[in-house]
Amino acid sequence: MNIAIIGTGYVGLVTGACFAQAGFNVTCLDKDLHKIALLRQGRMPFHEPGLEALIAEGQASGRLSFQSTLEPDLSLERAEAIFLAVGTPTGPDGRAALADLLECAGLLARTLTHGAVIVIKSTVPVGTCEQVRSTLETQSPFIPPPRFTVASNPEFLAEGRAIEDFRHPGRIVIGCDDAQACRVLRTLYAPFDPDGSRTLVMDVRSAEFAKYACNAALAARISMINELACIAGQLAVDMRAVCKVLTSDPRIGRHYLKPGAGYGGSCLPKDLRALIAMAQDHGEPAYLLHSVETVNTGQCERLLDTLRACMAYDFKGRCVALWGLTFKADTDDMREAPSLALAHGLLEAGARVQAYDPVAGQSAQALLADPMFEPCADAYRACEGADVLVVMTDWEEFRRADFARVAERLSLSLVFDCRQIYEAASLARHGLRHLEIGQRPPAAASRPFIDALQSAV
User: Fold this and answer.
1) How far apart (Å, rounded) are the C-alpha atoms in residues 239 and 438?
2) Residues marked as catalytic
3) Distance CA 186, CA 139 (A)
4) What are the TM regions of this chain, as residue ranges (predicted)?
5) 207 inside domain
6) Per-residue pLDDT reduced to its tens digit, 186-197
7) Of 134, 168, 202, the domain-final residue
């Protein structure tokens, strides 16, 4: 079967590479000529573990190719299924911006002389598939226009493990009102769900909504555990112990229940805002969704307040070391990363920031163009001359850190562990104080605090 995929971001490239490995002929298209040139050379436009090798395998087999939508090509005409995997970023009003998606629909309408299954892989508001179908029908110059079927097939890929998620999906959602189109999609996904038990077929509008529902639920769990951790800190409660109780309850489960710096990335923030906008458009107040967003937005200010207390409420002349800048490990994605919000807050308050990230240091320098911000070549260089260390991303190399070297470099001997990857006792052996989300900060700027730390070792 021949497949075309428009859009070469995380979703489009992972989808194309995995389908090609499964034996389908795949052409990935994009209007970004620079990106297409990179991909043809076997170079990746972003970091995703395992994807470069998988794309190289697909190109070597001849089943995966890259084409610009601006270049003459027959791949769209040959395709039996065309996936749209273009971005739907947040607009100024919080709604998903659909201009690029509808532009693709117009391109298909003017190009295709035969019928095809058009599959919306992008996360889109309910009713978008109907808009795409209307565009295909009204903008086609051919009489009669080809028969198009538009299906919704939302993605559930987590950055950093996207290939694994595609190959071994927890669920495959197909929103389709046409039996033949549904058969085409079942055929495509059969290598990844041989017995069909994980394939959920429903109407188009329900499939469109399903992705928003999942991301809203995940965002709510993250905000809930962060709020509980902050309450627990005021009550001198051990939140790690409480989390063990929560995760042992089968009704609650164990995922997304670790207090942290808040959610970020390309999906949860924008999808929650888009869902709130949909609710408002239909007269629903969405009180809980607003609260989820409020808690997450306020999480950075909580981190900043904790650091203010550690610095005796004066950042002037202080330096903070940041480990990790991407919103999560195993990706170079810094979209809406909590680290950026924290760094901006520190810089505005007069602190210097020295940061290290395994893959995103140079990107951060472009996003944080401030003479008081310094991206560092390694983790220990970021700690040189710093007062405290804040761990914002749980990269594997941070779990194996040499804290004897860290202790030599930090003047206030304090590690703010925003990802719960360390044990207080392990750090204490090196004279370091361990601080987690929600815990009351020590008066780190005072001499008695420093003396107490040294005598406790």
Assistant:
1) 9
2) 267
3) 29
4) none
5) no
6) 999 999 999 999
7) 202
Question: How many CA atoms does the CB half-sphere of 412 hold within 13 Å?
Answer: 26
Residue 306 and residue 223 share a domain: no
The confidence score (pLDDT) of residue 378 equals: 94
Please count the structural domains in the chain: 3
Three-class secondary structure assignment of 7-53 = CCCHHHHHHHHHHHHCCCEEEEEECCHHHHHHHHCCCCCCCCCCHHH
**pLDDT at residue 72, rounded to an integer:** 65
Contact between residue 202 and residue 229 where contact means Cβ atoms under 8 Å apart: no
Q: State residue 363's pLDDT score.
A: 79
The rounded mean pLDDT for the chain is 92
Q: Are residues 266 and 314 in the same domain?
A: no
Q: What are the pLDDT digits (tens) for 46-67?
A: 999 999 999 999 999 999 999 9
- Are residues 85 and 129 both part of a single domain? yes
* CATH number of the domain within which 439 lies: 3.40.50.720
Distance CA(111)–CA(1), nearest Å, equals 20
**Same domain for 91 and 146?**
yes
Known binding-site residue numbers: 30, 35, 88, 123, 156-159, 211, 256-260, 264, 270, 328, 335
Dist CA 307 CA 353 (whole Å): 13
291 and 372 together in one domain:
no
- Determine, yes or no, domain membership for 231: yes
Please answer whether residues 268 and 335 qualify as being in contact, where contact means their C-beta atoms are separated by less than 8 angstroms: no
Which helix (H) or strand (E) element contains residue 233? Answer: helix 204-234
Which residue ranges make up the annotated binding site for NAD(+)? 30, 35, 88, 123, 159, 270, 335
Number of residues that make up the chain: 457
Containing structural domain, residue 216: 212-295
Residue whose pair of structure tokens reads 């394939």 in the numeric block: 199
User: Do 251 and 368 reside in the same domain of the chain?
Assistant: no
pLDDT at 445: 41
One domain for residues 42 and 96: yes
The binding site for substrate consists of: 156-159, 211, 256-260, 264, 328
Q: Which pLDDT belongs to residue 443? A: 55
Closest residue by Cα to residue 437 from 180, 163, 242, 212: 242
Given a cut of 70, the residues of the chain with pLDDT beneath it are 70-73, 442-457
Residue 164 CA to residue 14 CA, distance in Å, equals: 10
pLDDT at 367 (0 to 100): 87
Last residue of a domain, one of 163, 179, 202: 202
Q: What is the pLDDT of residue 364?
A: 81
Reduced to 3 states (helix: H, G, I; strand: E, B; else coil), residue 222 is helix
- pLDDT given for residue 441 in this prediction: 79
Query: Do 392 and 243 fall within a single domain?
Result: no
